[in-house]
What does this fold into?
Amino acid sequence: MIAYNLENILKELPSGVKLVAVSKFHPMEAILEAYQEGQRAFGENRPQEFAAKAVQLPPDIEWHFLGHLQTNKLKLVLPYASLVESIDTVHLLEAVNSWGEKNGKVIQVLIEVHIGAEETKQGFTPAEVKELLSHASDYGSVEFRGLMGMASHTDDEAAVRADFAIIKALFDECRALYPGLASFDQLSIGMSGDWRLALDYGCTEVRIGTAIFGSRQY
Ligand SMILES: *Cc1c(COP(=O)(O)O)cnc(C)c1O
It folds into this structure.
């Protein structure tokens, strides 16, 4: 089923859009099944699980971290992550930068944008994103690669499109405002329920879990 799901998604996904297979809560065998189909980018959202999988699974897997990250968990994530997609506070950004400095590493990050309607959602407002990026040079051990966002969790297509339009406009505005951020080129939007819509808003990456691996057992 995993192979079948993957193949169908990849058939529809434009070649310039990266598929991150979100494997959280799924066993390593499921990841290996996707790996055998050629999938290399995987996403996880819990530090402990992320680290355990990263050390045990093939070294050429590209690991994306996309969950809430507490600063006391950095050592579980930063040694293995090729992209941290969920920078959601200045405090976290500062801690990631310090870790990078100490470990001689430049950490690739996306800034998480709060776009959906739900109150609980993490992330910066569009105004906060612009303010933060105006100080990008303060973070010498971080490379700002772009934005990540989640649309409102709803069947209302117009509402989802409105969320994607906001983050796409912000992405374009940031690139125009801060041309010095030469590698700020990634827009990570679109999940199992809405990735086809995200394609209309210039996403460069989609993060798909359920539609590949099936539903999660929490
Ligand atoms: C779980 C998760 C996904 C994947 O969600 P699905 O609906 O299962 O595709 C994508 N992005 C983030 C940040 C997630 O936490």
Q: What stands out?
A: The chain has a mean pLDDT of 96. The pocket of pyridoxal-5'-phosphate is lined by residues 22, 24, 45, 66-67, 150, 191-193, 207-211 (CB under 6 Å). DSSP finds nine helices and eight strands in the chain.
